[in-house]
Amino acid sequence: MSKVEKFMERLADHVIEKRNIYTTIAIIITIFFGWQCRKLSVKTVFADLLPQKHPYIKLHNEIRNKFGGANQVLIMLGVRTTGKYKDIFNVETLTKIKGITEDLQVFNAVDRYKIISIASFKIKDFKARPEGYMSVPVMFPKVPKTPEDIEKLRLVIYGNPICYPGLVSLDSQKALVQVDFLEEQMDYNVTFKELQALRKKYEDDNHFVAIAGNPMHIGYIESYVPGAIRIFGYTILAFLVLFYVFFRSTRGTIMPVFAALLSAVWGLGFLALMNFNLDPLVLVFPFLIGALTACHAVQVVKRYKEEVYHLGDTKVACKKIISSLFVPGVGGAITDSTGILIICITPIPIIQKICLVCGFWVFGTIFIAMFLLPILLSYFPLPPSRENYAGFAQEGNSFLDKMLHQMGRFICGKGKYAILIFTVVITIWAFFQQLKLPVGNVVPGSEILWPFHRYNVDSFRIIFNMPLLNPMYVVCEGDRPFTQNAPVVIRDILKFVRYMSRTPNQRVMFVGSLNGPIPNYHRAVRDSDPNWLFPPTVDMQLKQLWRVIYTTGSPGDWDKYMDSDTQAANIVLYMRDKTADALIEVIDRVNKFVKEESVCTKPVTDIVNMEKTTFTFQYRLAGGTAGVQAAINETLVRYNEMTTWIAYVIVFFVVALSYQSFTAALFISMPLLTSTFLTQAFMTLNNPPIPLTTATLPVASVGIGLGEDYAMYIVSRIIEEFRDNKRSLDDSIAVALGTSGKAVVYIGITFLCGLGFWALSNLMFQALMGLFLAIILVINILGALFVVPSFVAVFKPKFITSQRQD
């Protein structure tokens, strides 16, 4: 008997003999974490979704309260084609626009200086008169009532490039209201309810209200949390029914579910103890870790029934369980937890927090499944008739037993070669497919919600009528105050605006900046002659027009485009969408302009604040909704492969340490590559593709640990049958598949049934993740049942054949 085996036997004796102490410790820990759970909050903190060290996010944090952040909401009021109005130019519709604009003033966390519509005082009609410049609000403070006044308003709007098509659609049937919210004060649930009430107030038979933006998106997600909790309940009920069908006993039915629920109390309590919130987007993780706990518990219960039948003593049987399952159980839990903890290197707080908690959670599973569960089972008396357990201790007593035994014989025959060849072919195919894995948004709208969800319908309405939903902020910043008034900077920004407006494929629909109106102002002072629609060529005229634009408005009018000391200017690129390809193309074009077209690459000399001076300025990427998404995409691309391969290497060495064999690690770990490639290939081939996002990155990576658990249990049983029961290698494989393999099949059927309930989710993401996890599960089970035994049968590794002591 080896030192490891002696240690495990001493450990098993110690745990069972001191079971009262360990049971008391478990009760105390459970009470402590259960008490902590009262502080658990299920909500989204927007900052946790962002890679805070990325330069784009650093810029976002600097400018979000100055120029606006990623919490902009667009509200589009439109006239229905079946209604009585042909366009928005009627008293009722204009009154509704004014009402929406005014109601937003009292919303929670609203930035009142960033509420923009044709009814706000910020939108003005500029005129140059002999007596001076005039700037009059387009439709403030009153709504025109007479047909003549409404017609005048129509002409004013059509002649104002900010209003048309910026705030009024080209068909004149929709009007837009923009509003921004202060990120630190945001309560998405409150804002969501306020926006829903606003929609209900202003929608009628003649008008519709479309609302889109991050607060509305997250609000919808948080509103579906109760539905997700109901799915958890349905899943637990399904587990109970199936465990009863499998084990035909109260112990076999209750214990795996009890272990999963106990681990959930520990894990969620630790989450609350760390003052972390549970984000609705990662609700799949509690299910996943609970599933891992149930996985280990099923193996324990299955082995308990075997040993009780053979040994006839519950305490001795539980000692045997601990000593036999310690290596695969603890090794599996360690690889699960390290695989999860490795993902923490991804610098996105939501991933770091949930992975840290889940890493602790999985370590708790070691104690619960490998020690506490055998301890609790040892308290139960022997069943009245141990013959009820015979089916779990003998071969050939059911259809599943016979099927698994025959499968073992097939693998030990010629089947092993066909299985390995097929595995190699499918792995190569999946490898090239997963190279096409998309990152971030792949379609306009939200992939988290169903395609015809109200939010996606509203997003499409806004994007295809008034594409202001996806702004990217590019900040032109000087090294000292007042540099934005320097003619060289003004001309460079105007050149940048023209350059980005001509982005191929209409990736940028139009560009907003304080300098944008300069050509129109120049035309206005030239008696509105269209031949003068260009920036002045004389520096002093250019500076004067810039100053007129900046000073003509009311306080706060230009806060979105210029800071208070005119050192930094915000240039807003309104993108058609924020799909990954669009973001890459736009950012590359910005960088190309800076490198090849701009004068910002070297110091310039010009007049700043009435003094000639030498200074520098730069273009900084990227804020706004599109800039934030670009930062997330770049981070995911950088860390996805890194975390996957580090996790794979760690799993390899943990398995090697557990079996003291690199060959064992190779046999058990190689199918994990197939599993990883196949799951990501599925994401690529799905319609629409499931992209790599903050929420899907951990789920894909955790698949590495899932398959290794099943394989370790089967390999350990092969070693045990070959070593202790003196069976041949082929017989050992067949028996292992009929015993531990049977438990693996139980786990697979149970999880596939439970995951089916996720199809009921209001979130398409959760439904697809249920399918995604099911595919991971099936691939890993097939790998454990077919590929790993085939490796053993073909190569007859020494880490198994050298175990027998004759």
Can you walk me through this structure?
The chain is an alpha+beta fold and 806 residues long. It has 25 helices and twelve strands. The strands form four sheets. A four-stranded antiparallel sheet has the order 2-5-1-6, sandwiched between helices. Strands 8-9-7-12 form a four-stranded antiparallel sheet. It has a two-stranded antiparallel sheet with strand order 3-4. A hairpin with a 2-residue loop joins strand 10 and strand 11. The longest helix is centred in the middle third of the chain and has 36 residues. The chain is elongated. The termini are close together.
Give a quick rundown of the structure.
It contains 25 helices and 12 strands. The protein is an alpha+beta fold and 806 residues long.
Strand content: 5-15%
Share in helix: 55-70%
Runs in which pLDDT lies below 50 for 5 or more consecutive residues are 390-395
Describe the sheet with the most strands: 4 strands, antiparallel
Arithmetic mean of pLDDT: 80
Give the number of helices: 25
The coarse silhouette is: elongated
According to DSSP, the number of beta strands is: 12
Structural class: alpha+beta
| N/C terminus separation | 12 Å
Strand order of the largest sheet: 2-5-1-6
Radius of gyration: 33 Å
Main attributes?
single chain, 806 residues, alpha+beta, 4-stranded antiparallel sheet, 25 helices, 10% strand
